[in-house]
Design brief:
By secondary structure, the protein is α/β, with parallel strands linked by helices. Among the domains are: 145 residues, Rossmann fold (3-Layer(aba) Sandwich); 62 residues, Adenine nucleotide alpha hydrolases-like domains (SH3 type barrels, Roll). Helices cover 24% and strands 28% of the residues. Strands 12-15-14-13-16-17 form a six-stranded antiparallel β-barrel. It has a five-stranded parallel β-sheet with strand order 3-2-1-4-7. It has a four-stranded mixed β-sheet with strand order 9-8-11-10, with no helix packed on it. The radius of gyration is 21 Å and the shape is globular. Keywords: ATP-binding, Cytoplasm, Disulfide bond, Nucleotide-binding, RNA-binding, Transferase, tRNA processing, tRNA-binding.
């Protein structure tokens, strides 16, 4: 079995549990960044020299072979370039979804199977048994949403050993094993933007592309330097000095990349009842007709019961109750409620909402 060691506490304990379960484990650190010489800054960044050294120390403590795989070119093309292109198109992508789909459970899994490994083990917070993917026990750490892009053949060769345990217990377990990463801060934000300045990162790659900021009546309220600086539902940093007529905050309601127009308005206008999405991926086989499910439209939060209908190259989701801040480019994940942990049915990429 191949254990992906990020240098963090979750993947370290996942590898330790795989060893304890009797698997023959080899550790691998994925070098995804092209600027790995920079040191990690608290909870920001990834793939630094510090992370690689932490992963190596974990492998040494566990007594398993350890290697570094350089996948920086694949990551730059399939995750970073996709992220930039999506924002340029007025969308809000989730790079963790794309990384799981294209890197960890495509490039890495394919290479692992070719080398004779039977599975890839990661520190994701999700439960997997008998090919059924479920939410993690720790609801606050659940990562099943970003794993909803995995197909049955990929899940058949995956292992998520920490999904049945709350995070605080994982840290205690790491400390008991003598792993120095037990108290290491969790990574936050986007791993390849270590300073957290997403707008600056995108502007450096896309340049300034000025356009108008308008309200729902079409009145121009200001100017911006590029639609890549905005996401649906955004309230802060819009760049409009004048308050709304009712004195309440304005939110980003729409992004039109061709004209460069950003439309803002009241929070009530964010509510949607219908979602269109393309490129569905089914975790346990495609449904044969319309079905009911709970949907989730963001990595954390944004859930509602819904009816899902299959259409050509996609799905139409009719919500039983409205959701706010549904952004094209994000995924809509489908869950079947279950007392043992909601079952992940699949996901699709949001194209529109109304």
């Amino acid at each position: 079995m191949l254990a992906a060691l990020s240098g963090g506490v979750d993947s370290s304990v996942a590898a330790a549990r795989a060893v304890a379960a009797g698997h023959e484990v080899t550790g691998v650190h994925l070098a995804l960044s092209r600027t790995r010489d920079a040191l990690r800054s608290g909870s920001r960044g990834c793939c630094s020299r510090e992370d690689a050294a932490d992963a190596a120390r974990v492998a040494d403590v566990l007594g398993i072979p350890y290697y570094v795989w350089d996948l920086s070119e694949e990551f730059a093309e399939d995750v970073v370039a996709d992220f930039v292109a999506s924002y340029a198109a007025g969308q809000t992508p989730n790079p963790c979804l794309r990384c799981n789909e294209k890197i960890k459970f495509a490039a890495v899994l394919d290479r692992a199977l070719a080398l004779g490994f039977d599975a890839v083990c990661t520190g994701h917070y999700a439960q997997l048994a008998g090919g059924v993917l479920r939410r993690a026990v720790d609801a606050g750490k659940d990562q099943s949403y970003v794993l909803s892009v995995l197909r049955p053949d990929q899940l058949a060769h995956a292992l998520f050993p920490v999904g049945d345990t709350v995070k605080s217990s994982i840290r205690d377990e790491a400390a008991a094993l003598g792993l120095r990463v037990a108290a290491k801060p969790d990574s936050h934000d986007i791993c390849f933007i270590p300073d957290g300045d997403t707008r600056g990162f995108l502007t450096a790659r896309l340049g300034a592309q000025p356009g108008p900021i308008v309200d729902v009546s079409g009145e121009e309220l200001g100017r911006h330097e590029g639609v890549h600086g905005f996401t649906i539902g955004q309230r802060k940093g819009i760049g409009v000095d004048r308050p709304a007529a009712d004195g309440r905050p304005r939110y980003v309601l729409g992004i039109e990349p061709v004209s460069g127009t950003v439309t803002v308005g009241p929070r009530a206008a964010l509510s949607v009842r219908t979602i269109s999405a393309r490129r569905p991926i089914w975790c346990s086989g495609a449904p044969d007709g319309p079905f009911a499910a709970t949907v989730q439209v963001r990595a954390h939060g944004g859930t509602a019961p819904a009816e899902i209908v299959l259409v050509e190259d996609g799905v139409t989701v009719t919500l039983a109750e409205p959701l706010e801040g549904v952004a094209p480019g994000q995924a809509v994940a489908f869950y079947r409620p279950d007392p043992s942990g909601d079952v992940v049915l699949g996901s699709a990429t949001i194209t529109a909402a109304s």
